[in-house]
Amino acid sequence: MIVNESIVQAGCKINLHLEVKDRRPDGYHNLESMFIPLEWGDILSFSVFDQRLPCDLRVFWNVPHRKCTETFQKTFCDIPVEENIVYKAVSLFRERTGWNKGLRIALEKKVPVGAGLGGGSADAAAALRTLDAVSETRLPFDELCEMAAELGSDVPFFLYKTPAYVSGRGERIQKAACPWDFWALLVVPDFESNTASAFRVLDKERENGGGFSLADKPKPSFSGKELIDALKEHPLNWRYYNDFLSFFFRRRA
Hints:
Helices cover 32% and strands 26% of the residues. By secondary structure, the protein is of the alpha+beta class. Strands 1, 2, 3, 4, 5 and 6 form a six-stranded mixed beta sheet that branches.
């Protein structure tokens, strides 16, 4: 018997600024970034049952990707459900809280994969927030953030639902105010970018002197305060940049 039903939209994000700094001992990179949350994203439907049942996660693809290539099918559509970050979020929440009600989740994927929009991370954060609500555990926000960070570097940001200066490997978040109410036009290129692979290739480019030397970067490095204060300026005056952009454009030329 279904005792609770919830439908949530997991808004994705854009990076106004992304400076990739040195690689850390744990394998991650130190980052300086400005994240802006978007209202548009994947849709998750939750059905909670009164009896104890395993999590039934079903994924429906409604993504405006280039075409469903064989590589796309194997990489995203055919992965075991246990490897989906939403399923991992449910498992972690159950482990930490002991909540064991039956659960069915329908995940409608709308955010393009490999686009740097954080679709999967947004899904995981939405799952944690919704489970905390339907289970009535009312966990402290810091505890939810701790679980989010365990799932992925970008996941904690999506619990805040506000523009933020993000640093460390992505787990350090400082909320920022953006006075501008604007629309974002998302352009989907004809290639995907796996995050881990992108960082590996960027490291290799830097090691080979491909114009991305940490010792001689062509772009200035801004402090967190400067990045936050820049949001108050007119968007035409923003000095934000993304370390990956010129790199990807050059590789695709």
